[in-house]
Amino acid sequence: MKNIRPFSVCAMAFFFSFSVLAQTTITTNKDCAIHNATPNTNLNGIFLIVENQNQGDPAGASLIYFNLSTIPQNVTIESANLYLYCFEKNGSPVLRIGRLETKSWTETDVTWNNMPYMEQPPEVTYHSVGPKTTFTAYSVTEFVRGWYSHTYVNNGFQLFTETDQTNATFYAREGGTSYAPYLVVDYITGVEPLTSETPLAHALYQNYPNPFNPTTTISYQLPTQSHVTLKIFNVLGREIATLVNAEQAAGYKSVTWNATNIPSGMYFYRLSVVLTAQRDLVPTDGRNGQAGTYTETKKLLLIK
After folding, report:
1. How far is it, in rounded angstroms, from Cα 223 to Cα 121?
2. Residue 125 and residue 138: Cα distance in Å, rounded?
3. What one-character DSSP code corresponds to residue 290?
4. What is the mean pLDDT of each run of 10 residues along the chain (304 residues)?
5. Distances in Å between the alpha carbon of 243 and those of 219, 231, 297?
6. Cis link prior to 211 (omega < 30° from 0)?
7. How far apart are the first and last CA of the chain?
8. Among 90, 121, 176, 226, which is most buried by a count of CB atoms within 10 Å?
9. Omega of the bond leading into 199 within 30 degrees of 0 (cis)
10. Contact at 8 Å (CB) between 143 and 78?
11. Are strands 173-174 and 60-65 parallel, antiparallel or unpaired?
């Protein structure tokens, strides 16, 4: 009797068919505050001052650099958030975050007069600085995507404020406590198969991402050459789309559904497989297409 290895089947299917969402947290390699009245980088642990320029106070800015080498090669950046700790806050300061121009800098040598400035694009503006005495996430996805793809040179972020705004102070550290800014990057990586063996069983996997907007990928596996249908249905059982209706060889498969013109809601995807050698012998069920040697249905959620 042939030795069947069900655990191996699961492992092979997972590593071949799926993209994996992973996350890395990156601490600063260098960060400093710069004050035009006091051109130094220490400022007693403060790394950014948002000044009230309406009252004639001098401005403050910060430079922050992250080494992105901990992000693996050949991945897709899903999202990136810069976390800042707001120690003091008065009113609703407006925070601007931009990428630095191509100009080298060090924490010990940079001053108000020689610091690099923001490049355009991109720049993001947050009209309300996060709650006092807590870390707040600020989305910087486009910056990190540009640096990762080498579209931009990664000289770091500059944090500044619009003029005529109220006060806020961000801290990097106080006493023995670190409040240093940090970067959290979510990325998607495709994993190659561990083996070229043919799957030993049928399987339909959960779509990824789920929930999704507007595209998602559905993966499945076939142990033999078969006629395959993969369809999308709404909660009333009405067919919305046919993603696959074809003869397919054995192996690991995936298909992407683009639901751009479909309203938000819960949907179902159904995989029906008929062994090619048996196709003429298998009846249809009259409702949901062909009932064959393998049928499975799963839910997916579209949120717009």
Report:
1. 50
2. 10
3. B
4. 35 46 85 63 53 51 88 87 83 83 83 81 81 87 91 87 65 71 85 62 88 88 92 95 93 90 93 78 45 83 87
5. 12, 6, 14
6. yes
7. 52
8. 226
9. no
10. no
11. unpaired
